[in-house]
Fold each of these.
Amino acid sequence: MQPMDPSQIQLNKEGRLKHFLTTEGLSKEILSEIIDTANSFISTQERSVKTVPLLRGKTVVNLFFENSTRTRSTFELAAKRLSANILNLDIARSATSKGETLMDTLWNLESMYSDMFVVRHADSGAAHFIAQHVTPNVAVINAGDGRHAHPTQAMLDMLTIHREKSGFEHLSVAIVGDILHSRVARSQIYALKTLGCNDVRVIGPNTLIPKDIESLGVRAFNNMKDGLKGVDVVIMLRLQKERMQTALLPSESEYYRLYGLNTEKLAYANHDAIVMHPGPINRGVEIESAVADGPQSVILKQVSNGIPMRMAVMAMAMSGQNQEQALQDQNQEGAQ
Amino acid sequence: MQLQPQHRLCISGGHVFDPSQNLDSVLDIFIENERIVAIGCAPEGFVANTTLDASGQMVFPGFIDLHSFLAEPGFNQKGSIATETQAAARSGFTTICCTPNTKPVIDSSAVAALIQEKAKQAGHCSVLTLGALTANLEGEQLSNMSGLKEAGCVALSNLELPFKNSHVIKQCYHYAAGFNITAIVTPIDTALAHGGCMHEGPASTQMGLPGVPVSAETSALAQHLILCEETGVQLHISRISSARALDMIIKAQQDGLPVTADVALGNLVFTDESCRGYDSLMHVSPVYRSKSDRLALLDGVNKGHLSICSNHSPQDLAAKMAPFSASEAGINSLDNFTQVLLSLVHKQELTLEAAIKAVSSSPASVLQQKLGTIALEQRADLCIVNLEQAVTSESETLMSKGRNNPWLGTPFKGGVTHTINGGHIVFQN
Amino acid sequence: MSLPQPDQLIANMAKALMPLTQQDNVVMIGIHTGGAWVAKQLHEQLGLNSALGLLDISFYRDDFSQNGLHPKVKGSELPDIENKTIILVDDVIMSGRTIRAAMNELFDYGRPEKIVLACLLDVGHRELPIQADVIGEKIERPRNQRIKLSGPTPLTLTTVNLEK
């Protein structure tokens, strides 16, 4: 029995995207194509009529097993700007077995002729599971699964870096904070490495850096001075306040003192370094307001890049899924 | 009482292989009723009712499994004593140990008796019950240990379930030692495991799944070994997963501690890398660890330190149709146990001698049962195996109710052709 | 059958379009990619002052379900079109679907006063009621033949036979 390569189920027989589950294992060409396509959608977002008819008549289901109004809204808006019909399903976790809830929901949705699922789930591998087991003709977009991946967030960050720094080859990028629980960090690391960025660093206390992180091709640092030295991009991660309850961190104040990004710490980075944050920001916990709102911050640009990026992956995955179905239909006709 | 009619079976021309008896040659075996009465030459006047031609095949002692979850009573949708023992018999098992995590738990003589009765009715395989070491397996109160022993439990186990505190462990061992009861545990420090569902390492980090560090196993193991030393209990460490744990057990044995150990077959085959792709069939407990752990465990079997158990855990479809961490742990490993075991021999990862010992004489000595050998006056528990036969399992051919089998569609070389339990042919193919 | 020289056709088209350019609200927009090449030459020959627009209709195609998204979407770059007279330029007009998509997209950018369509070649086989106002040349071709414009310099026309 061969373990299935998780990245390969994202591609159709022509090698084009049909699901978007993870940035891991996708080629540089595909990641660049995603960035280019998103770039083209930016021009449509600057006009008075922001809608394009690309997904007209398609049904997109926002399948959120974990609450996130913010992410859900950006997908909803992206789907609407592609002229798709959108159905929002917030499935709070019920008392029954997690697995059963998921299966039941999916079997119900399968019979509703959906074309695309946007999935947010607390379990790593959930979007992958859905793409693999449940719905052969539906494009699945991962909107965050457990600690595993949040590829659309990572790609909108890549789009932002690409627009600000026009390339990845010679960049040094530092990701700061709770790497252990961060699906965003994992997706960013894979994307950055594939796009040619050779110097990716993670910065945080040992308790927030997962074991064997070096296996992802990054360097780990425990202090900001060494970690930020000479970097071009600083990506701050959100620190979930509930982490303080467990034995991961001593206190908010100690965390802020060590890793909170303020003007002094930012000075370790290159003078033209940009500061990013996936939001929502905990001001005074991981970042100081003067930096978050300062000239080096591109946090608001990240937000506006979110819609065109999500439009791009939705359009590309739908297109790849259509192409695969067309190929299957042809083969069936050929067989008859 | 009615005398049973004489039943005489001859297994002729097979290559009899039992390392514990230094048997390794083509020999005939003669069986009368449930005992072996001669090996080599027929006893005077022996006329067989049945003769099995085993030429070109191997004759092994019937296999013994130290850890099978039979799912009955209490988990009808996952398995039953009849189906799971049938799956065991097809893999050459003549004796399996049923784990106490049934519903109700095997912490009373009534449940133990019920299981033994049902197994007898099914008639595929002898079932020995493992009683619960603590009441309801809750890790707080001692179970009725002596009563469970009298009810036929061959050992008492707390599985991988947590004890309330270390004092309870010590008391269990202390009490068990006084009645010459073997205690079984799978060492896991639940706090260190911290909800993990796979080995903590590069793969878990990359997949974003919470990992179980090796220290979760070794720190618990250290505690069990120290309390074993203090109480003198006969202790069996079930299903170890790491090289480090193996080292600790070997060291303890060298120090003279009454400790034995086993490893689950799956941990000799798969590693944490097998979890990539989030295949829920790779979600097991104890977890599959690194490649170096796997190689060390194979070495431990080859050197005779470890028995091999099936860690059979049948699951219904819904239990596995879920994202990795949300799925239930465990695989159906009885249906193709022997093919998988022999594949390790074919790949020269295990010697045939070590592989057979690890599922026959070695588990028999853990259980202190006179089983697992081919010898005069021994119970005639045997299996006949064609080492070259090509076998592929499909979902429809599984005998266990568990569809959670990771080897479906994988071609193997080596199939059980007959299983003989107490002189009776209980499986043939 | 030999194909005409694009440069000659463009010169003819420029002549035909000249009267329009007397107005001051004229904007020229080429459809990516062939139309944009033709538009660039026309734009120069007519000496238009307003910026040349580029229209990429990838997001507006009606064959998305069958053919998917073009892998190299360029994105449109349009000047202000509100109340303007637009000279929309394409290389080859056939079914009319490209022009339909182009007009849909234009209206998402604003409301032009007037749209004039100029095409290098008209090969017939129309599927929609759309006609060009200015044509370089009209050529009849069987359905399984396409005429392809290569460029940008020099512009050349070639015949491509489709399979089946």
Note: The CA atoms of residues 155 and 236 of chain A lie 16 Å apart.
Amino acid sequence: MSNTLRKDMHTGTEKHSGESENNVKKPKKPKKRLFSQKQKDMASGYLFISPFYLLFAVFGVFPILFSFYLAFFRWDGLGEMEFVGLNNFNIIFNDPLFWKSLYNTIIIGLMGTAPQLIVALLLAFALNSVLIKYKSVFRLAVFLPYVTSIVAVAIIFSVIFSNQESGLVNSFLGLFGIDPITWTRSEWGAKVAISAMIFWRWVGYNTIIYLAGMQAIPNDLYEAAKIDGATLRQQIWHITIPMLKPFIIFTVFTATIGALQIFAEPHIFQGRGGRPEGISIVLYLYRDAFGSNFFGTASATAIVLFFIIIIFSAANLLLVNRIGRSGKVGEK
Amino acid sequence: MNSEKNKLKSAKVFIYASLIIVGLASLFPFYWMFVMATNPNNLINRNPPVMTPGTEMFSNFQKVLESIPFFQAMLNSLIVTTSITFGVLILCSLAGFAFAKLHFPGRTVLFVFILGTMMIPPQLGLIPTYFIITELGWLSDLRAVIVPGLMNAFGIFWMRQYISSSVPDELIEAARIDGCSNFRIYWNIIVPVILPAFATLGIIVFMAIWGDYLWPLVVLQDQSTHTIQVALRSLMDDRVRDYGMILSGTFWATVPLIVVFLLFNRLFIKSITDGAVKS
């Protein structure tokens, strides 16, 4: 039985390539193998995955461990390293600018992502509606900003939100008799401009993801609900939203983590050094390290940022679990 | 019945209206970028600002070329992005194949470890990595961006999932009986099957690396090694900003990507959603 099967496979491959012909004819009796298949699999398995581990050892493990080490030293990058204990953390925690950068990051993150996800959800509803034609055109239009690089977006919006009276937003506001705003130097102006960049670039991306989720919902669910007399709103609340939950969780997660790592937008909008109105944590870190050569305190900031990201991810998870549970209770 | 119809109609009008408004809002910055890129400064600084394309397309771009090595920067970006994309596709599909189809001790643990590395924010190791690059003598050298970029945990995860679901074990068994080595199995059986996954992962990696900013900014200090993103930012350095010039550079740096996107937009959108949804 197994012999005939073997033969079939051989003839099958014979047709395929001439090279295997040699292999087929030679080992009439099983040739003595130097290594067993198990050993071969082991060797090639480790070989194939080794590049990642080698790279990770050099550019992953070592830098991370060294960051934790460096956070306890004072170092300008050239001279001697001096052990200072927890002093670096003391320095940043007593620096008002650090707290400002944390505050800015959270505010800009909220302003840039929360409305964005809601609008994306609404857009996806609209694009999924049976009433609409030319869907692919609209889909293309909202997705195009995502193809633009973050730097390009930041530059375009820096010019749109320029401080001059002739700037696009300022001259628009002028139509309503509002005085021009110095966007880069005002507390809320800078935040609004940076949030607008984030909003514009990502709203289409999230729309497309929600849309993919909606299209995966089987139609009979809606049919059944309609037969039971469910209104459109009920359908949305009891079918669409629950079925979209994994997609919503994914977008909230990525948006949160992305928002905590904002860098290019304030760096370009407010100039290399940044300004207190828009500085983000990563920009604070970058400035400390590559502007002032305070590599010890900058490492301390990196570690604080790491824990902030962990805390936010955990909070997200907790929230997701809670929503999941209350949803189930509500159903019953 | 009639009111039902009317309701449907007004819903339709409402949806169309909102989609058109959003679509225009989405496209307007592109149009406006083109307007700025083709107008002279005196019109740009006028109030109200110009809203129609002008005639200065070439002279504005000429100023870009005087200010930054535009084509060199585009070439640098292209070199970095294509080498990383091809490198990642090969390394990740090999590792994905090993994790999906080869049995070796510690396979699960090693795979979970790779998944775990995806949680680490890249800024955590930023400063020491900078010093490693300095030690290697790779400052202002494209290798500083390319080599660390080859490490891609998501790609391995993605390839493993794809290979384990699309390549039947029987196919591999059959090839083994024919005496194929593991590498030949990879090359002659796995690679042809996973070409769609190459396209998807390739687009995701290409987009991410093309737009990468922080790391190239840190290590590519010499102007001749700038990627286009870093070069574009230096257009903003002048005290008196020439918006026509700045947006001309941004426009011509963005156009090639948009053209490629429009040509392959279905594949693009599918790749981005697949990449997001399946993880």
Note: Residues 25-70 of chain A form one domain.
